C-alpha cells in the first residue's frame, strides 16, 4: 500500500492515512453468507430428492407460511446476541401474548381489533420487564434472568387459560396466517419488510453501531457516551414486540391457542441467529445471514415434514444444525469456508 | 559461533501483512547478564519478545541458544528450552491460589494415580517465594495480591519452570518506587543465581539501576548495543528517538481566561468529600496525590460515570447536574480514561470506528450514519494527532501503546468542547511519545480548552500545570500556583499523617 509521508515543521513524520477501502473479490466472497447460500442450496437439493412435491413454486411459497411466524423474533434476537446477552423467554412471551389476546376476545368481549393491539403490547411489556431486570441486576447473566421470566410468563399463561384451548376468532383474523397479497403470502411480505427495516437499523444507523460497540466493549462504550442501559432495554422491548407479532401469525394460522403454544421457539430462534453468523461472544453478526439461516432451518423442517418425518425427529435435526453452526467456524476448514 | 552467549539472534525479520514489525535486528545475551532493551512504543520490542518465546516464528534470521541454532514453533517449545517471559500486563488466574498460578501448565502429579500433589507444590512454591525474599502465602488467592506481588509470583513461575533466560516486559510500569526497588533486588538475585535477563522498560532509572548492557531498537530496526556506562543519557535518547529532545515540556504560552467550571463542596460517601475548586479557560489544572486519594473518582463524577451525593457544579456560571457521560459530553466535557484498553478503546475495531464512536450523533442525520462523514472525520483527527498506521481501517489492536493512546486522544476532539479531563495521559508511554502528548495537551490549552490533568508523576505535574490541586484520602489538602510549587510541598500535602496509605 502506498501513502505519502512528509515532514511537518517540527520534524515529525506527517502521515497521510488512507480513508478508502479497497474492494477485493477475495474479501467479498470470503464471507460466511456464501457458506449459508451453499447450505441452503444443499437443503433444497436434499429435499427435492426426498420428495417430489417439494421443488415447485406453490410448495416453496406456501411452505414459508409454516415457519416464518417465529422468524420475526430472529432479528431482535440477533441484536441481543450482538449485545452479548440472550433471551430465552421469547417462546413463553409468544404464548402469553397469544393467550391474553384470545381471553380478551372470548371471555371479556374485547373487539378483536383491540385484542390484536393488546397482543403486541403484552409482548412488548414482557420484553420491557426482561430489559429492566437485566440492567438492574447487572451481576446476573441474561440467561438466568430470562430463564426466570420464561417460566414466569408461561406460568401466567397457564393460570389464565388453565390448559384449555381458545379459538373462534373472526374470519378476517385468519388473514395473518393464511392471507395472500398479489399471490404472495402476507407473512412472507411482512417478513421481508421487517428484515429490511432491521437490516437498515442494525447496519446503517447510529443505534445499530452502538449495539455493536456495546457487544465488543461495554465499558469503553459507556465512556464514549453510549447509553448502554437504554439501548439494552429498547432491544429487549423489540424482542418482546416481535414475539407479539409471532403470536398473531401463529394464533391466526392455528385458529386457536393454548398455554403450551410456541414451546421451545426460543431454541429455533437462537439456532437461526447462530447459524446466520451471529456470534454469542458479542459484537458480530449480519441480518442478511440470519435471513438465509431462517430459510435453511425452515425449509429443512418443511421438507422433512413433507415426507412425514415426525415432529420429534425434527428436534434432532434442529439440534444437530445448531451444533453444526457453532462448531463449523472452529473446525479447520479450507480458508474459503471460515466464518469471518 | 561463540559459546559465551546464551542467546543470540541474527538478522531477525518479522513481517505482518502490510507492516514490517522487525527489520533485520540483532541481539546477544551473555550468561548472568541483565540486558536492557529500550525503544519507543512501536519500536518492535514486543514483537521481538514474541519471536524469542516462539509466539511469532520469524520470517528470516537465526536464533542461537547456547551456540546451537534452534527454531521455536510454540511458546511451550520455548518454555521447555528454559525461556520464560513476564509480560507487561500480568496474565494470571485471579481466582486461583498463588501455588496454582505458579504451577499452571506443569503441575506436580503422582506418577501412578495422577493425583495432584498439593503439599509438594505448596512447599515448593513457598520455597521459591522465600528464596526471592518474599513472604507471600502460596495458599493466598492471586486476585487479593497487589500488582507488585503478582509480578513476583510470575517470576516464581518462571523459576519453577527452570527458566535460564527470563524476559521482563516493563515490569515496573505499574509499581511504586518502593515496590520497584524490591523488584530490582529480586532481579539481581536471579542474575546472581546464573539466570540471564532481558529487561524491557521505558524508565531510565530501571536501566541505570540494573543493566550492564543496553540495546536500542527504533522503528523496527536495530540501532546498537552499548555498555550502560559507555553511553551518555543524551546519546541514548537520540538513539531511541532519532532526534534530540531539547526539552521535554513545552514552553508555556497558554493564557488563563474567565472562570469556566466551579465545583463547590462536592462529596460522595466513601470516596471523597468537600471538593471545591475552579477551572479557567485555557488553564491546565494538575490534580495529584497518592494512588487511591480519590482523584479519578472526583473526575469520573464530573464526567457522569458515577454520581455525587453532595455539592454543586457550576459550568459557565450555570448550575448543572451531571447524571451520565452523554450529558456531560453535551455540556462540553470529555474524559480520557486511565485504562485505554478497557475503558478507552474497542480494540478489535478500526481506528476510524473508534474515533467516530463518541461522535455518532454529529455524523448522522436523523439517526442514519454517514460513512463518508465518518471516514473524513476519522482521517482528519487521526492525522491531527499523527497516528502511525496505513489506513483508518487498521485495527486498533494492531497499534503500539503510544499510537493507541493517540487514537484515544483523537476521540476527545470530535466535537466542540470546553473541558478535557485527562487521567494519567502518559501512563505506559515512552519518552518520545510523551513529549508529543505534552505538546498536544499544551496546544489544546493554547486553543482555549480547559484541562484537568490527573497525574502521579511529579515532573509532569510541575512541568505542565498552571495550578496544582493535591488530594489526600478523598479531600483536597492544597491548591498551589505553579510558581509557588515545589516537589517537597506537593509531597507533604499528598502524604498521609496517619501513615496508613502506601506511597504511590
TrEMBL record, chain A:
Cited InterPro entries: ABC_transp_permease (IPR001851)
Membrane topology qualifier: Multi-pass membrane protein
UniProt-listed Pfam families: BPD_transp_2
Parts of the chain that traverse the membrane: 34-55, 90-108, 114-135, 142-161, 181-202, 231-250, 313-331
Protein localization: Cell membrane
Alphabetically ordered keywords of this record: Cell inner membrane, Cell membrane, Membrane, Transmembrane, Transmembrane helix, Transport
One GO cellular component term noted in the UniProt record for this chain: plasma membrane
Molecular function as annotated in GO: transmembrane transporter activity
Protein's name in the database: Autoinducer 2 import system permease protein LsrD
Species in which this protein is naturally found: Robertmurraya kyonggiensis
Automatic annotation (TrEMBL), chain B:
Domain ABC transporter: 7-244, 255-498
GO molecular function: ATP binding; ATP hydrolysis activity
SMART domains listed in its UniProt record: AAA (SM00382)
Top-level lineage group: Bacteria
Keywords associated with the record: ATP-binding, Cell membrane, Membrane, Nucleotide-binding, Repeat, Sugar transport, Translocase, Transport
InterPro entries: AAA+_ATPase, ABC_carbohydrate_import_ATPase, ABC_transporter-like_ATP-bd, ABC_transporter-like_CS, P-loop_NTPase
Membrane topology, as annotated: Peripheral membrane protein
Signal peptide bounds: none
One Pfam family here: ABC_tran
Localization annotation: Cell membrane
Protein name: Sugar ABC transporter ATP-binding protein
Amino acid at each position: 500500500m502506498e501513502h505519502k509521508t512528509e515532514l511537518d515543521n517540527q520534524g515529525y513524520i506527517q502521515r497521510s492515512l488512507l480513508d478508502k477501502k479497497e474492494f477485493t473479490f477475495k474479501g467479498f466472497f470470503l464471507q460466511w453468507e456464501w457458506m449459508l447460500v451453499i447450505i441452503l442450496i444443499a437443503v433444497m437439493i436434499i429435499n427435492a430428492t426426498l420428495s417430489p412435491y417439494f421443488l415447485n413454486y406453490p410448495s416453496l411459497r406456501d411452505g414459508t407460511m409454516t415457519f416464518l411466524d417465529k422468524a420475526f423474533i430472529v432479528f431482535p434476537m440477533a441484536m441481543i446476541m450482538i449485545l452479548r446477552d440472550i433471551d430465552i423467554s421469547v417462546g413463553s412471551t409468544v404464548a402469553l401474548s397469544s393467550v391474553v389476546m384470545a381471553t380478551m376476545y372470548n371471555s371479556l368481549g374485547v373487539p378483536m381489533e383491540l385484542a390484536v393491539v393488546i397482543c403486541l403490547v403484552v409482548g412488548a411489556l414482557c420484553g420491557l420487564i426482561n430489559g429492566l431486570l437485566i440492567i438492574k441486576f447487572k451481576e446476573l447473566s441474561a440467561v438466568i434472568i430470562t430463564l426466570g421470566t420464561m417460566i414466569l410468563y408461561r406460568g401466567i399463561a397457564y393460570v389464565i387459560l388453565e390448559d384449555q384451548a381458545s379459538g373462534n376468532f373472526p374470519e378476517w383474523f385468519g388473514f395473518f396466517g393464511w392471507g395472500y397479497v398479489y399471490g404472495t403470502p402476507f407473512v412472507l411480505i411482512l417478513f421481508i419488510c421487517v428484515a429490511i427495516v432491521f437490516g437498515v437499523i442494525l447496519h446503517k444507523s447510529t443505534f445499530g453501531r452502538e449495539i455493536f460497540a456495546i457487544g465488543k466493549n461495554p465499558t469503553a462504550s459507556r465512556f464514549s457516551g453510549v447509553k448502554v442501559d437504554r439501548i439494552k432495554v429498547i432491544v429487549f422491548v423489540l424482542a418482546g414486540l416481535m414475539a407479539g407479532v409471532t403470536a398473531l401469525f401463529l394464533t391466526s394460522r392455528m385458529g386457536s391457542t393454548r398455554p403450551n403454544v410456541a414451546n421451545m421457539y426460543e431454541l429455533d430462534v437462537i439456532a437461526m441467529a447462530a447459524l446466520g453468523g451471529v456470534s454469542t461472544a458479542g459484537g458480530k453478526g449480519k441480518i442478511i445471514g440470519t435471513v438465509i439461516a431462517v430459510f435453511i432451518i425452515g425449509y429443512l423442517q418443511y421438507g422433512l415434514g413433507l415426507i412425514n418425518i415426525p415432529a420429534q425427529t425434527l428436534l434432532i435435526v434442529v439440534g444437530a444444525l445448531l451444533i453444526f453452526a457453532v462448531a463449523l467456524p472452529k473446525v479447520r476448514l479450507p480458508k474459503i469456508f471460515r466464518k469471518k | 559461533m561463540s559459546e559465551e552467549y546464551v542467546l543470540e539472534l541474527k538478522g531477525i525479520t518479522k513481517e505482518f501483512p502490510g507492516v514490517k514489525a522487525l527489520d533485520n535486528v540483532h541481539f546477544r545475551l551473555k550468561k548472568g547478564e541483565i540486558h536492557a532493551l529500550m525503544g519507543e512504543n512501536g519500536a518492535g520490542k514486543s514483537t521481538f519478545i514474541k519471536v524469542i518465546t516462539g509466539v511469532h516464528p520469524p520470517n528470516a534470521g537465526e536464533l542461537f541458544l547456547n551456540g546451537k541454532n534452534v527454531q521455536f514453533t510454540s511458546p511451550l517449545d520455548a518454555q521447555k528450552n528454559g525461556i520464560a517471559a513476564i509480560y507487561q500486563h500480568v496474565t494470571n488466574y485471579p481466582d486461583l491460589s498463588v501455588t496454582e498460578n505458579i504451577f499452571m501448565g506443569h503441575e506436580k502429579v503422582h506418577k501412578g494415580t495422577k493425583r495432584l500433589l498439593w503439599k509438594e507444590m505448596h512447599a515448593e512454591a513457598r520455597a521459591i517465594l522465600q528464596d526471592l525474599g518474599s513472604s507471600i502465602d502460596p495458599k493466598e488467592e492471586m486476585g487479593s495480591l497487589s500488582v507488585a506481588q503478582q509480578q513476583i509470583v510470575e517470576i516464581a513461575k518462571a523459576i519453577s519452570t527452570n527458566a535460564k533466560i527470563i524476559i521482563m516486559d516493563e515490569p515496573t510500569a505499574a509499581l511504586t518506587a518502593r515496590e520497584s526497588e524490591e523488584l530490582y533486588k529480586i532481579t539481581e538475585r536471579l542474575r546472581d543465581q546464573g539466570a540471564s535477563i532481558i529487561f524491557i522498560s521505558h524508565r531510565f532509572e530501571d536501566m541505570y539501576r540494573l543493566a550492564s548492557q543496553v540495546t536500542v531498537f527504533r522503528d523496527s530496526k536495530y540501532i546498537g548495543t552499548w555498555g550502560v556506562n559507555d553511553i551518555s543519557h543524551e546519546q541514548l535518547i537520540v538513539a531511541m528517538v532519532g532526534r534530540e529532545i531539547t526539552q521535554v515540556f513545552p514552553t508555556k504560552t497558554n493564557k488563563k481566561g474567565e472562570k469556566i467550571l466551579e465545583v463547590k463542596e462536592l462529596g460522595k460517601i466513601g470516596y471523597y468529600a468537600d471538593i471545591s475548586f475552579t477551572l479557567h479557560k485555557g488553564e491546565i489544572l494538575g490534580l495529584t496525590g497518592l494512588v487511591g486519594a480519590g482523584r479519578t473518582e472526583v473526575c469520573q463524577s464530573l464526567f457522569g460515570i458515577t454520581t455525587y451525593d453532595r455539592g454543586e457544579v457550576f459550568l459557565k456560571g450555570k448550575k448543572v447536574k451531571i447524571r451520565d457521560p452523554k450529558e456531560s459530553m453535551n455540556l462540553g466535557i470529555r474524559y480520557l480514561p486511565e485504562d485505554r484498553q478497557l475503558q478507552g478503546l474497542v480494540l478489535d475495531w478500526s481506528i476510524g470506528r473508534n474515533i467516530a464512536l463518541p461522535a455518532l450523533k454529529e455524523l448522522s442525520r436523523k439517526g442514519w450514519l454517514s460513512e463518508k462523514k465518518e471516514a473524513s472525520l476519522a482521517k482528519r483527527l487521526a492525522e491531527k494527532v499523527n497516528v502511525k498506521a496505513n489506513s483508518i481501517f487498521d485495527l486498533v489492536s494492531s497499534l503500539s501503546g503510544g499510537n493507541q493512546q493517540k487514537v484515544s486522544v483523537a476521540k476527545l476532539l470530535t466535537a466542540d468542547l470546553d473541558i478535557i479531563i485527562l487521567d494519567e495521559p502518559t501512563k505506559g508511554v515512552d519518552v518520545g511519545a510523551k513529549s508529543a502528548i505534552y505538546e498536544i495537551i499544551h496546544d489544546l490549552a493554547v486553543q482555549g480548552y480547559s484541562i484537568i490533568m490527573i497525574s502521579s508523576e511529579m515532573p509532569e505535574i510541575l512541568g505542565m500545570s498552571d495550578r496544582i490541586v493535591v488530594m489526600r484520602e478523598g479531600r483536597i489538602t492544597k491548591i498551589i500556583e505553579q510558581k509557588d510549587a515545589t516537589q517537597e510541598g506537593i509531597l507533604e500535602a499528598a502524604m498521609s499523617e496517619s501513615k496508613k496509605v502506601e506511597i504511590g
